[in-house]
Amino acid sequence: MIITPILIVVLAVLGLLAILWLAKSLVLVPRLPEDPAAHMRSVDVEAFRNLVDPAEALFLRSSLSPRQFRKIQRERLQAAVEYVSGAAHNAAILLRIGQAARLSADPATAEAARKLVDNAIQLRLYSLKAITRLYLAMLLPATPISPAPLAERYEQMTRLVVLLGCLQYPTRGISAAL
Amino acid sequence: MAGLCFLPFCLWMPAWLPHALLVSLWYYLWIAPKLLLLILGSLMYRRGLHREFPVFFVYLAFQVLQSAVLWAHPVFDDTYMRLFSGGVAVSSALRFGVIYEVFRHLFRSYPTLTETGIMLFRGVTLLLLVAGVALAALVPGRSVNTLMLGTNTLDRTVSLLQCGLLLFLFAFSRYFALSLKSRAFGIALGLGSYASVQLAISAVLLYLGSGRSPIVNLLSMATYHCCVVVWMFYMLTPERKPSISVMKLPAHDLDMWNRELQRLLQQQ
Question: Does B141 score more than 60 pLDDT?
């Protein structure tokens, strides 16, 4: 009988600690890193597309033995998860940059930043779904995976970053941001 | 809330604690938070913040009113107990309203997330409600007074729900790197801390039985006091704005992004 109250107390204490830890990390969110580039991960969209391409999977299935295919497919999906995590991580950094730029006095910059924030949020949302699907596909190879919107969203987000760069550094253009 | 039933048990305190000190502490912890709430409510009204957080404002007003009404009644008579239990029910409902208000403030700044956020909010509420009802049914608790038993069960279920919802709110905001406005953040932080401590306290009361644990009641009252101080701090300090002076676009990956842009332009 005493077990239940103890369990609830433990749960409540863990809940309190989690709330305080999350609150602390939220307070620090608006502070951008000095050099965001150093915190970005490289994401090759074409390689990602190839990894989740159903035609590619079909080709591998027909050319390899079932055992080999399962092993290779698991490794490909694992690599796809890495790409998605990288894209989600970059989106989080761009989100903070966009949030700060939303306060810009220039309406065009503020609008571009708002779009960047929206895209980065949607990318984080898609990546959550995509990672779940990719892990599910690792367990059940028959599960259909369609993370194509994620690649599209990532491309859209990168275009918005370039646009934001142009708006913030108009005299230097895109090349100046490189 | 549990602290309001403390007075008749003042004599039941551990011998090493001076009785007069405990009684003074109990009076302080009952009166001080309500006075602070009264001050906070009037300052909110003067600054027009009651329009920004109407449910929170009503909650503050109700807390002050409830305390004034209970103060006027002799402790532990039937009317007092009914008023106390009714107050717990109304406060719990208002706290849900406050949590919803904080969520609404969060989604207002991020319209993209509204649909998903509301769907997840409902899902988590349903899940926690099932867990809370199951807990209440499996471990009903014990008390000689049916009304107090019901009140404690309600308090436990509500604390579980509110603690879970606020944990979800913070986790959701962190995953999407959202910045909560500092006032909404302060309300959530105070309420979340209070709900989790209240959940632990309700579990202890489940074992000890209601009304037989003055130290636990004092802890509940002290937590509420801290929660009110957190609200005061966040409500009365100006909203902080993220700095845009450190804006520096990441160079890494930009060559690839530029290639993507050129590819897009060629497509069009």
Answer: yes
> What per-residue confidence (pLDDT) applies to A177?
35
Residues of B in contact with A123 (CB under 8 A): none
- Residues with Cβ within 8 Å of B174's Cβ and at least 6 positions away in sequence, in order, are A22, A25, A26, A29
Q: Which residues of chain A have pLDDT under 70?
A: 1, 28-38, 142-151, 153-178
Q: CA of A97 to nearest chain B CA: how many angstroms apart?
A: 7
Domain that holds residue B50: 2-9+19-238
Task: Decide if B94 contacts B58 (C-beta within 8 A).
Answer: yes
Q: Are residues A76 and A20 in the same domain?
A: no
> Can you give the pLDDT at residue B39?
95
> CA B92 → CA A10, B55, B235, distances in Å?
23, 12, 21
Instruction: Please indicate, yes or no, if residue B264 is contained in any of the structural domains.
Output: no
Between A and B, how many CB-CB pairs are < 8 A? 183
Residues A86 and A107 occupy one common structural domain: yes
- The DSSP line for B31-83 is HHHHHHHHHHHHHHHHTTHHHHSHHHHHHHHHHHHHHHHHHTS-TTSHHHHHH
Whole-prediction pTM value?
0.75
Contact check, Cβ <8 Å, B196/A90 = no
For residues A139 and A79, state if they share a domain.
Answer: yes
A36, B261: Cβ pair inside 8 Å?
no
Residue A37 lies in a domain: no
Domain range holding A24?
A: 1-31
Q: Tell the burial category of B136 from Cβ atoms under 10 Å away from its Cβ (0-12, 13-18, 19+).
A: middle
Return the ∠ at Cα B219 (arms to B216 and B223), rounded to 5°: 145
> What are the pLDDT digits (tens) for A151-168?
676 666 666 666 666 555
Q: In this predicted model, which residue has the larger pLDDT, B250 or B3?
A: B250
